[in-house]
Write a structure and sequence with these properties.
The chain is built from five helices and twelve strands. It is α+β, with helices and mostly antiparallel strands. It has a domain of about 190 residues: Aromatic compound dioxygenase (Protocatechuate 3,4-Dioxygenase, subunit A), CATH 2.60.130. Strand 4 and strand 5 form a beta hairpin.
Length: about 325
């Protein structure tokens, strides 16, 4: 079998529109996260081929045994779902960090009227707008307890830092600002989408977006009812392109000092199930997507602030210098 060749783009080498996570490696050596994203983008092809071909392709992309069990099980064809869908491993539970704004650690934006919104680039009252490169990010939530079907009706609360690495409602001068936080309810495909700006990179953390998943929108005012808490990681190529912009002063330096493997959240498996697929450019803006498996038969283990190292102002790291 011939080795696929990447395509050179303004944002770095890409294969079938997906930027390579490991720019110095061949396409076949990009790792499980890239393979999974490639497979998910081919759902239409797998649907035509049926369950049998889906299992063969997934098995071909699974990592070979290396003398011990893998910490991230390879996906297999879904026995009880759509013929064209592959089962998805449960998203790792992660900390909500020191700045959740969900009432568990001080401020509570989830009590505010207007928090259910698609565009989170401005405060709920419209008084302040975040600077930065435009980003639309999409999460597709799958219900693993019911065969991996779309988890329609769940409410997803997402939040992230500014281009300068600060958090609304917590950072100095931003206590009364509510941008870069919002809730969406999953549609029939289990999908939610947010319009925002690309987050910066502050000292001690890989660029990321937090999210909590609730059983329904009526549950969001009680953070203890969340059925999953995790984080989306942004790929290096897109981050490097964005951080060349003056609005992200300091982010390029901070990114150079950390890797997915050394990050205290994604480091267990280099974010194998959490690195988003990203397309776009600095001039046109970016689009990011991630498939999120949620298993309600397991007990959530995340949500609390970490013991240290979360990063950001006052939380084990510092925001980029202004």
């Amino acid at each position: 079998m011939s080795i696929p060749e990447p395509t050179q783009t303004p944002d770095g080498p890409a294969y079938e529109g997906r930027l390579l996570d490991r720019v110095d490696e061949e396409v076949v050596d990009q790792g499980a996260a890239f393979d999974i994203r490639t497979l998910m983008s081919r759902r239409g092809v797998l649907g035509l081929a049926g369950l049998g071909l889906g299992a063969v392709v997934l098995a071909a992309c699974a990592p070979a045994a290396s003398g011990g069990a893998s910490s991230t099980p390879a996906p297999t064809a879904s026995p009880g779902g759509d013929a064209g869908s592959a089962s998805v491993t449960e998203i790792p539970d992660e900390t909500a960090g020191p700045y959740p704004g969900d009432g568990s650690n001080g401020p509570d934006v989830l009590e505010d009227s207007g928090i259910v919104r698609q565009d989170i680039s401005s405060s709920i009252d419209g008084a302040a707008t975040a600077d930065g490169v435009p980003l639309v990010f999409e999460l597709q939530i799958l219900d693993l307890a019911n065969g991996g079907v779309p988890f329609a009706g769940v409410a997803v609360y997402a939040w992230h830092c500014t281009a300068q690495g600060e958090y609304s409602m917590y950072s100095s001068g931003l206590e009364d600002v509510t941008y870069l936080r919002g809730v969406q309810v999953a549609d029939a495909d289990g999908t939610v989408s947010f319009t925002s700006v690309f987050p910066g990179c502050y000292s001690g953390r890989w660029p990321h977006i937090h999210f909590e998943i609730y059983p329904d929108v009526a549950s969001i005012t009680d953070s203890t009812t969340a059925i999953a808490t995790s984080q989306l990681a942004l790929p290096q190529a897109a981050c490097s392109a964005v951080y060349a912009e003056s609005a992200y002063d300091g982010s390029a330096r901070n990114l150079a000092q950390i890797t997915l493997a050394s990050d205290n959240v994604f480091g267990d498996d280099s974010g194998a199930l959490q690195v988003a697929t990203v397309s776009g450019s600095v001039s046109a803006g970016y689009a990011a997507s991630l498939v999120v498996g949620v298993d309600t038969t397991t007990t959530p283990t995340a949500g609390a602030a970490p013991g240290g190292g979360e990063g950001g102002p006052g939380g084990g790291g510092e925001p980029p210098a202004n």
